């Protein structure tokens, strides 16, 4: 069973939150006060992360992640819920929506990739992920994190913000991170572009206006997926961290519209 952090009243509609790679349920702490008055928030520690750091998964690991989430949520009495996933958490949310669609009330994706389309893309990603796994396995975690947050997708972060993230992430368990990273590699993920369009409930996609890569990806994907796109001002790849108030306003607006049947 995966570790969870809850906030709000269990009498309110449930909202499950899935963090990104290197994160934990703690990553949502600034967002939860904005949401928990109206929604029962269940933030999950994914396998290899946070208090689920000792839970390993097979490779490919998406089915294991969905099975663990299903077991955890049913165990705590949450058979139906709204679902929000950021980055890796969004990719896992797409797999959950594909294989357990009847559990969802709505799907909310933040800065997540639907899947690579060509063999060459998958091969290149597999090689890059192998290098990252070797770094996590052989280098001090602080050094690996310093390299990780130099990637282009994090270009909006200041030096001070990078240092704060490194300090926050350095207590994770490297072996758990390596296992999850390799098992949920984008190179192993199928193309999930059609999933949102097949769902019987609304889908929404959230991105930071400074995240050029995922802005282009989401806009190209939107006609096929049919989701509503929300752009968060003055934010990069992790818009819920950069602008929790603005992100919460967009998310609550979407959730409230769903509750009204819009």
Supply the key terms.
11 helices; alpha/beta; Rossmann fold; seven-stranded mixed sheet; 262 residues
Note down, in words, how this protein is organized.
The model has no long low-confidence stretch (mean pLDDT 96). It is globular and about 50 Å long. The chain has helices spanning 32-35, 62-75, 88-99, 119-138, 141-148, 159-169, 174-183, 195-198, 212-225, 239-242, 244-259; strands at residues 4-7, 14-18, 40-44, 81-86, 104-110, 203-208, 228-232. Strands 1-3-2-4-5-6-7 form a 7-stranded mixed β-sheet, with helices on both faces. With 262 residues, it is an alpha/beta fold. The chain is built from 11 helices and 7 strands. The protein has one domain: 3-Layer(aba) Sandwich (Rossmann fold).
Distance between the termini: 35 Å
- The name of the CATH topology is Rossmann fold
Largest sheet: 7 strands, mixed
Quaternary status of these chains? Answer: single chain
Query: What is the helical fraction, as a range of percent?
Result: 40-55%
Rg from Cα = 17 Å
List the secondary-structure elements in sequence, H or E.
EEHEHEHEHHHHHEHEHH
Total of DSSP H or I helical runs spanning 4+ residues: 11
Instruction: Tell me the name of the CATH class.
Output: Alpha Beta
Number of structural domains: 1
What percentage of the residues does DSSP assign to strands (E)?
5-15%
By helix and strand content, what is the structural category?
Answer: alpha/beta
Query: Which strand order does the major sheet show?
Result: 1-3-2-4-5-6-7
